[in-house]
Amino acid sequence: MHEQIWPYVTPGIPDDLFERLPGIPMSKCEVRLLMIAHLRLLPNSVLWDIGAGTGTIPVETGLMCPNGRIVAIERDEDVVELIGRNCQKFGVKNVEIVVGSAPECLSTLDHTPDRVCIEGGRSIKDILQHVWERLPLKGRVVATASTLEGLYGISESFAELHVRNIEVVQSAVNRLETRGNRQTFAAVNPMFILSGEKLE
Amino acid sequence: MHEQIWPYVTPGIPDDLFERLPGIPMSKCEVRLLMIAHLRLLPNSVLWDIGAGTGTIPVETGLMCPNGRIVAIERDEDVVELIGRNCQKFGVKNVEIVVGSAPECLSTLDHTPDRVCIEGGRSIKDILQHVWERLPLKGRVVATASTLEGLYGISESFAELHVRNIEVVQSAVNRLETRGNRQTFAAVNPMFILSGEKLE
Amino acid sequence: MHEQIWPYVTPGIPDDLFERLPGIPMSKCEVRLLMIAHLRLLPNSVLWDIGAGTGTIPVETGLMCPNGRIVAIERDEDVVELIGRNCQKFGVKNVEIVVGSAPECLSTLDHTPDRVCIEGGRSIKDILQHVWERLPLKGRVVATASTLEGLYGISESFAELHVRNIEVVQSAVNRLETRGNRQTFAAVNPMFILSGEKLE
Amino acid sequence: MHEQIWPYVTPGIPDDLFERLPGIPMSKCEVRLLMIAHLRLLPNSVLWDIGAGTGTIPVETGLMCPNGRIVAIERDEDVVELIGRNCQKFGVKNVEIVVGSAPECLSTLDHTPDRVCIEGGRSIKDILQHVWERLPLKGRVVATASTLEGLYGISESFAELHVRNIEVVQSAVNRLETRGNRQTFAAVNPMFILSGEKLE
Description:
Chain A has a single domain (26-197), classed as Rossmann fold. In chain A, the strands form 2 sheets. A 7-stranded mixed sheet of chain A has the order 3-2-1-4-5-9-6, with helices on both faces. In chain A, strands 7-8 form a two-stranded antiparallel sheet. Chain A contains 5 helices and 9 strands, in the order αβαβαββαβαββββ. By secondary structure, chain A is an alpha/beta fold.
């Protein structure tokens, strides 16, 4: 049997280990760590990852929850293939990839999610509305925003849906990066991570 | 059997779930996530945590590596008790707490470490020198610095010891916190996290 | 003639040179620099500073625009005295202090403002509405927010009022500070600074 | 007489108002504000700007100190021309541009500097050594670093030269920027700004 590319029990796979496509968004390692932490996964959690992009969240969570089930939702067919290739590269077998556009496609999904991660999507309010209806008690939702509009939309929806134990963090990490022959501090673009749970 | 306080497979335990003592340093949740990620723990890793403070790293890593072994090293007896109470609170059973001052006490430790986390200690260079001698090939070391002196000391030692695949990140997270009746963005104080591995 | 406390032509007076009162907000030096920059003051500008707090903006702008006129608006009488003491300490003579609550008190102000700085105030939308009516063409407004609600309120008002050339920056400075006998990196709490101008 | 491009008394000229050349470094607006603040210019200060690059510091300080004198030192002839064009664009007439490599060229400079800004240069320690010999009492020096090596070099030199009232700040600003049809928070790369003065 060949060696695993990520044999570790800890998350935080370096960005450059993932296969990438130009223009396809990827949750950077440091932001991903905060998303995963706020998901608070149980060993057998069912996770929906909406707007899965490069597939870093499915790969990391698939590895951490071998007895869980991850549903990666992505509308772009090329990107769907990319997610598949990244799952294969890391030997992740419990990710189901759904080609579709949220929120419409969500009603076709069989399993009720315990956790929902929203990495993208045009109509964040509609998506959150649908997600909230499907989410069971004690379910958790994590959503990211890099824009003011996204931050507003998620925050307003959370309030309207009576999401509980809301947490908002803004990631702002600097990395020492090699540029030419110098090691320069470079900022990873800031990202807001909003999370909360359903309690009633 | 009573319910576990942290039943999740993901790290990132909120700061306020830990028992604390005034004046005793604690690695904040967002910084801890970066430390854990850079440790890259294997299921059976032996981890030394030098300057364990409140014990957040022993608790989180103890939960993630039930078949691993964590050695928490702390010179202050009161703090040692605090680590013990936090391990008990979270039901962590694979943490051995050593009362002692690094680097002197390190030579008394039986098990060779696969991973070393350095959260504190006066003479960071001496500690790193001792750690490096004990670390096997493919071993990893992670150290944090909140001061310029710490950043210099670790960085210089890493260069002198020929630490490989060095990574330096600076965590700078903002949290939306409730202060009075307002929700204000508050900065978690920045921390440098340096890591690398032994390859020859 | 006695020596001036701040003889420099450049802004950025250190925080600890100002007299302070416990609980009274103060725009920190690094945030103040961004506010002043976005005000883009002319030598003879009339500036309204709404929610002047400790009076750092009146002092700095008063020094930079000796031929300008600064109206500092503050509802709390104790704080009004503090602003006065800080103006006196720095030898600033072109600051008029108005005791009153915005937006109500704004209609009593004689001079049309060229620039408006909004550092506080309960009803940010009402304040911006009133300010916008008084602001002449080419006038500029700068407002700060430390909360999500503030950020939303200002951003929405700017859109409704058709504020032009809107800029949003978030300040997130770390300072090396002496704590005990160590020099530690400490974060200045983040602040959003929104600015724009009236062009039609 | 034609209209001035920057008629304001406040610093903080937007980056895109400067003429630029590909690959030539430019101190970004928010970093520049911190540098200018720490320079603490007097109306008639003589400022050396070493490694002037795009010339943003000469332009801003030239405008703020019409009775001062700015000496911009730059080794690359193409860059020297760029500085000249930017001074002309902003109508700045009190900037003298010196083609030369620091520290060698510093001994050829006639005027003793009251303030020295170090934006670049290979051998930061040699430059600081020369600068310190020329600097009179009450003189101030400001230096920037984007790398660990730069941060170390400046910090060590400051200690060796007994620089007083040392301040270290790290700028970390996020801007809301238009990318495609979205407004995204983008980080300005972090920069360390170190400053201090000569008191004995």
